[in-house]
Amino acid sequence: MGFESLTEKLSAAFKKLKNKGKLTPADIKEAMREVKLALLGADVNIKVVKEFVARVSERAVGIEVLESLTPAQQVIKIVNEELCQMMGGSVSKIKVSSSPPTIVMMTGLQGAGKTTQTGKLAGLYKKQNKRPLLVACDVYRPAAIKQLQVVGEQVGVPVFAGEQGESPVSIAKRAVEHAKRHGNDFVFLDTAGRLHIDEVLIEELKNIKQAVNPTEILLVVDAMTGQDAVNAAAAFNEAIGIDGILLTKMDGDTRGGAALSVKHVTGKPIKFIGVGEKLSDIEEFHPDRMASRILGMGDVLTLIEKAQESFDEKKAAELEQKIRRETFDLTDFLDQLRQFKSMGSMDQVLSMLPGVNASQLSNAKIDEGALAKTEAMILSMTDRERLHPEIINGSRKQRIAAGSGTRVEDINRMLKQFEQSKKMLKQFSSMGAKRRPGRRGF
Ligand code: GDP
């Protein structure tokens, strides 16, 4: 996830407030000057920055000293709330039609990631036990149809393609009829893109819109293009009227400008974000969670949801029992690591933890090969050792190291990690009991 530089600059601005018992207007002014520079540096729209800083300053000047929070913490809380507000406040979901199918028209400029995201979204709905249909309306690039067919196959969703020479409007109409006949409750139209917004493109989108009356028009924009993405969103919205935005490539080193400005500039919320090239790399957009990520406060809830999604539910329940009964052993640890691997890349997962930022990640050199090593070590143990790691003494360590092609230090490190994981899982498990997000529904 991008934003590292913004996160660092904001924490530097707040650090200066930390040791102050009471904040003077001058302290706040100075901090706000730095916040403003940080946001401008992140390519946030200037008008948005000005309004943001004015609102935060107004609220911050009047703050009382509370027992529970220091003045600096209160300023951070206000910034957090205002950042969240700036990105739309709460989650915006895709509208669902009361008479199926729900028709989602995907639009966007070429290269924004439209075809990929269309496939990802359909896959997401399939996981929710829906019956989506993908529709190839980009008839100008034969490769686009093929690309949609490939992603459709990967996510297990059928693709409706038109006949040679058929117009996008006719394809869209026939696809909706097809969906009705075949019980598809969601239809995702992958429309054509262009390098720039032009009359022909807009005309075609308007015609499709008129022909099928979509439930939702989503615009796919590339976060890496910063203010260009915001301008494109404003132009699309003006020309055809959009309902929401899917912001892609949030995994790249985007400075954050698009995510932070687009709602304010266009009035339309970000509904989903694309966070990687894999078809599972899509997330519902939560302004509050994004705000805390930006402030370096981590995003433990998304982490837990990801864990729940990729974990086998029965296994997860067993695991919870084991953690409760304190019988979590090395075999479970290995199981856990393997599941962790299926959640995404290590640094993607770690970046959601509070206090972990990109520079720390690169210093820590997350080595995915380490997982393979851990696997080898655990597989070289006897059943009793896996069940009772406390019996692993010096000579056992030497035997395991020799068996797994590792060193005794590696065994020590792994056992330490095992203990830490046990502790962390215990924390997660008690958090889960307090606030267990239900299965995700969109
Ligand atoms: P389209 O022309 O808008 O349909 O764009 P494509 O779907 O063909 O995507 C263009 C490129 O962006 C492809 O190489 C995709 O793999 C890549 N892409 C799409 N979404 C994401 C994302 O969320 N993150 C990253 N890193 N790459 C993405």
TrEMBL record:
Residues annotated to bind GTP: 108-115, 190-194, 248-251
Alphabetical UniProt keywords: Cytoplasm, GTP-binding, Hydrolase, Nucleotide-binding, Ribonucleoprotein, RNA-binding, Signal recognition particle
Reaction catalyzed: GTP + H2O = GDP + phosphate + H(+)
GO biological process, one term: SRP-dependent cotranslational protein targeting to membrane
Domain SRP54-type proteins GTP-binding: 269-282
Domain of life: Bacteria
GO cellular component: signal recognition particle
Main location: cytoplasm
Pfam (any one): SRP54
GO molecular function: 7S RNA binding; GTP binding; GTPase activity
Annotated domain remarks: Composed of three domains: the N-terminal N domain, which is responsible for interactions with the ribosome, the central G domain, which binds GTP, and the C-terminal M domain, which binds the RNA and the signal sequence of the RNC.
Functional summary from the UniProt entry: Involved in targeting and insertion of nascent membrane proteins into the cytoplasmic membrane. Binds to the hydrophobic signal sequence of the ribosome-nascent chain (RNC) as it emerges from the ribosomes. The SRP-RNC complex is then targeted to the cytoplasmic membrane where it interacts with the SRP receptor FtsY.
Similarity field: Belongs to the GTP-binding SRP family. SRP54 subfamily.
NCBIfam families with a match to the protein in the record: ffh
Quaternary structure (record): Part of the signal recognition particle protein translocation system, which is composed of SRP and FtsY.
Protein name: Signal recognition particle protein
